[in-house]
């Protein structure tokens, strides 16, 4: 279902991009993520293999991002107003084990919703392919997490509701979970709009992975830094009622905040 | 035939299935020594088998020197790294012979972490007639000894002994992929994914790091070293290849740490061929200097390239090994075949190059006539002393008789390791757990 038209030529930069290219993009992404996961499970994956798979993933990521940008550049003008604030309700309650996967799946879902709202007749195939890719990333991210993956929005909500000491405690346990999830966070770089690159943390031999074991003592010291950033995170994607581009940008900005927190954590643990 | 199959059914727990190949028998490296008299193979189980060419006899001139087993020994054992809770594989990654200096033969063999120097020597005489002990070694009762006798050396059946003389260990964090003996015959280098170390053959407790491409932040790692080799004549020069398809030539006189290359060989990417797999298929799996030292040969997934050391911008010659796989890269990525590391070899005069492919095929390219041939190493298709029939893979729809279509290729049968005799037209081809030795036809 490849539609031809003036609009398409405007934002299609190179020839040969069509359903075939997208299906290959999709399969390369699937296969690469699968290999990435399998290698994570290995005690000692081959460094050459890891580097090659990682570079391929990066390439796919940049291709998808380029696609997203070209879409958004055109579609900002023709954005449909029927896009309603479709963010899910935030169940308030104690945070579950999955803190960060929900954040990213939420963002992915937001962007996916945006995409669906943007679809016009002729670009339906393209954007649906993109949304399929995003859905897959979604499931991968959820599946890649540890333990049951019910999409819980609670973490953000509960943090923003906590005050004072509770927030401190919350932030340190969140930091623990963050350091646990660090590899999978970095993996989510394949998610479009995520500026963070896939990291080789788990794959690398000479990084002592015990460094990343949660140690509350060390992390307590970081909690101050984290608290500074958590308020910004708590400005949750409830802004979905604003323009699509904004929420897209906001998702990126939030991801950048996470990245910054990660940098802090990484700097605390010097690598040999 | 009927009986056989019946007995198999009854006794199938006792009968060995002849098609089953023990994984430990998979040959992982093949190498002729500098005279071609000996051929060494290493396998996944850590064993080294050395073959020796029998002397040509005038009685049977049609039986040109054939290779027979000379020595077998266990070079490496599986080890356990307690610090990282990792098992170190005993698979022999590379064998390199040292030039012969006396009656004994020396070779270097390496697994992922440790290089060993082995001495292979013959013993064909035995001392006999000891004064103080019996023939079987027991000490005689001193009271019975009345005369003085000096032991005499008597000939015995030939015994070949292999003994480890040096063990070069604890120098590599990552997996060793290459070793190369220097032309000075005093040093050698061992290469892992990120570092190259220089050793003296006599000294095992110290090595010098000459190349280190490990970034401070491992997250920034995008390129690893895949192979390295010393120049055959200039003991200060070596090259190393990378996973991004580049080759760097380094001069050890320039600096102690050769992170800055003297020459950088890379072919600019062809934009029309660009795909998601461009980088993976550009990763160089093997690099070999020509015997003359003037040329360099590299093998990446689909091609073999010959470079002139004086021209860094592009290769001198490019040969397509199995270009019909280019449209199948996605499935080859999925089944991991795209990561297969094929080796390549020169013949003695540097006029022909050879490399392996799938379906037990191997290819030879004549650099002068520009002709190429595809041959198959398999028991079914070749009887001993029969001439190998050239094979052909058909890409298009119409398949001629004797051709094989791309989709029928067996990707589990890959020829990764081959060797060419240094002066004659004798080749050794390793097909999984079988070794084939082919010679030129004698008229």
Plain-language structure description:
Chain A is mainly alpha-helical and 272 residues long. Chain A is 64% helix and 0% strand. Chain A contains 9 helices and no strands. In chain A, helix 2 runs antiparallel to helix 3. Chain A is globular, with a radius of gyration of 19 Å. Chain B is mostly beta strands. In chain B, the strands form 9 sheets. A 4-stranded antiparallel sheet of chain B has the order 1-2-3-4, with no helix packed on it. In chain B, strands 7-8-9-10 form a 4-stranded antiparallel sheet, with no helix packed on it. In chain B, strands 11-12-13-14 form a 4-stranded antiparallel sheet, with no helix packed on it. The longest helix of chain B is centred in the first third of the chain and has 10 residues, at 2-11. The two termini of chain B are 39 Å apart.
- N-to-C SSE string of chain A, H for helix and E for strand: HHHHHHHHH
Quaternary state reads heterodimer
Question: What's the total number of strands of chain B?
Answer: 31
Structural class of chain B: mainly beta
Total strands of chain A: the figure is 0
- Measured between the Cα atoms of the first and last residue of chain A, the distance is 52 Å
Task: Tell me the layout of helices and strands.
The complex is a heterodimer of chains A (272) and B (443).
Chain A: H1 6-11, H2 19-41, H3 47-75, H4 100-118, H5 124-144, H6 154-161, H7 164-187, H8 216-234, H9 244-268
Chain B: H1 2-11, E1 27-32, E2 38-43, E3 47-53, E4 67-74, E5 79-81, E6 86-88, E7 94-97, E8 105-110, E9 115-128, E10 152-168, E11 178-181, E12 187-191, E13 195-200, E14 203-212, E15 225-230, E16 237-242, E17 247-251, E18 263-265, H2 278-282, E19 286-289, E20 295-299, E21 303-308, E22 317-320, H3 329-334, E23 344-346, E24 352-356, E25 361-366, E26 372-376, E27 392-394, E28 403-405, E29 417-420, E30 426-431, E31 434-439
Parallel strand pairs in B: 27-28
Antiparallel strand pairs in B: 1-2, 2-3, 3-4, 5-6, 7-8, 8-9, 9-10, 11-12, 12-13, 13-14, 15-16, 16-17, 17-18, 19-20, 20-21, 21-22, 23-24, 24-25, 25-26, 29-30, 30-31
């Amino acid at each position: 279902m490849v539609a031809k038209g003036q609009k398409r030529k405007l934002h299609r930069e190179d020839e040969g991009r069509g359903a075939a290219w997208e299906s290959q993009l999709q399969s390369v992404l699937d296969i690469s993520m699968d290999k990435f996961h399998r290698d994570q499970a290995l005690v000692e994956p081959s460094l050459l293999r890891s580097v090659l798979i990682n570079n391929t993933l990066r390439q796919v990521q940049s291709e998808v991002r380029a696609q997203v940008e070209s879409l958004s550049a055109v579609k900002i003008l023709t954005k449909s107003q029927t896009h309603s604030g479709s963010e899910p309700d935030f169940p308030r309650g104690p945070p579950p084990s999955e803190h960060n996967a929900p954040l990213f799946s939420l963002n992915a879902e937001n962007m996916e919703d945006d995409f669906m709202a943007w679809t016009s007749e002729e670009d339906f195939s393209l954007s649906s392919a993109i949304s399929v890719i995003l859905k897959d990333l979604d499931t991968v991210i959820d599946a890649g997490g540890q333990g049951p993956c019910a999409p819980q929005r609670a973490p953000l909500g509960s943090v923003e509701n906590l005050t004072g000491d509770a927030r401190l405690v919350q932030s340190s346990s969140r930091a623990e979970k963050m350091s646990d999830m660090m590899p999978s966070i970095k993996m989510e770089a394949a998610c479009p709009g995520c500026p963070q690159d896939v990291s080789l943390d788990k794959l690398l031999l000479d990084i002592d992975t015990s460094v990343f074991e949660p140690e509350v003592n060390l992390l307590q010291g970081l909690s101050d830094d984290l608290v500074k950033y958590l308020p910004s995170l708590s400005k949750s994607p409830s802004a979905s009622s604003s323009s699509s581009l904004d929420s897209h940008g906001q998702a990126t900005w939030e991801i950048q905040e996470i990245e910054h927190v990660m940098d802090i954590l990484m700097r605390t643990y010097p690598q040999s | 035939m009927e009986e056989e199959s019946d007995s198999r059914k009854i006794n199938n727990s006792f009968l060995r299935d002849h098609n089953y190949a023990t994984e430990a028998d998979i040959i992982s490296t093949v190498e002729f020594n500098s005279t071609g008299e000996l051929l060494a193979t290493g396998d996944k189980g850590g064993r080294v088998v050395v073959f020796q060419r029998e002397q040509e006899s005038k009685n049977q001139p049609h039986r040109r020197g054939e290779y027979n087993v000379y020595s077998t020994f266990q070079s490496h054992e599986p080890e356990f790294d307690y610090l990282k809770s990792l098992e170190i594989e005993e698979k022999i990654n590379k064998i390199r012979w040292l030039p012969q200096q006396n009656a004994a033969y020396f070779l270097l063999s390496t697994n992922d972490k440790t290089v060993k120097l082995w001495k292979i020597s013959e013993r064909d005489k035995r001392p006999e007639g000891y004064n103080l002990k019996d023939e079987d070694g027991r000490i005689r009762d001193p009271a019975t000894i009345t005369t003085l006798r000096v032991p005499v050396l008597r000939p015995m059946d030939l015994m070949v002994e292999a003994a480890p003389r040096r063990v070069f260990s604890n120098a590599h964090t990552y997996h060793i992929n290459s070793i190369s003996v220097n032309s000075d015959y005093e040093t050698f280098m061992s290469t892992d994914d990120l570092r190259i170390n220089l050793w003296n053959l006599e000294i095992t407790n110290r090595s010098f790091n000459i190349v280190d491409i490990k970034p401070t932040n491992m997250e920034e790692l995008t390129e690893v070293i895949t192979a390295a080799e010393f120049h055959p004549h200039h003991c200060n020069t070596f090259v190393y290849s990378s996973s991004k398809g580049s080759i760097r030539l380094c001069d050890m006189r320039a600096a102690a740490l050769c992170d800055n290359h003297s020459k950088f060989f890379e072919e600019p990417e062809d934009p029309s061929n660009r795909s998601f797999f461009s980088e993976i298929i550009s990763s160089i799996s093997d690099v070999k200097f020509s015997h003359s030292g003037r040329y360099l040969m590299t093998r990446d997934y689909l091609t073999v390239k010959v470079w002139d050391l004086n021209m860094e911008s592009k290769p001198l010659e490019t040969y397509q090994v199995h270009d019909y796989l280019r449209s199948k890269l996605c499935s080859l990525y999925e089944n991991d075949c795209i990561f297969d590391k094929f080796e390549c070899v020169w013949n003695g005069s540097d006029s022909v190059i050879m490399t392996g492919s799938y379906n037990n095929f191997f290819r030879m390219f004549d650099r002068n006539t520009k002709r190429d041939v595809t041959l198959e190493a398999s028991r079914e298709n070749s009887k001993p002393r029969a001439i190998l029939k050239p094979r052909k893979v058909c890409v298009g729809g119409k398949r001629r008789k004797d051709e094989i279509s791309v989709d029928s290729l067996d990707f589990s049968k890959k020829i990764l390791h081959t060797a060419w005799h240094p002066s004659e037209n004798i080749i050794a081809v390793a097909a999984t757990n079988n070794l084939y030795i082919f010679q030129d036809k004698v008229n």
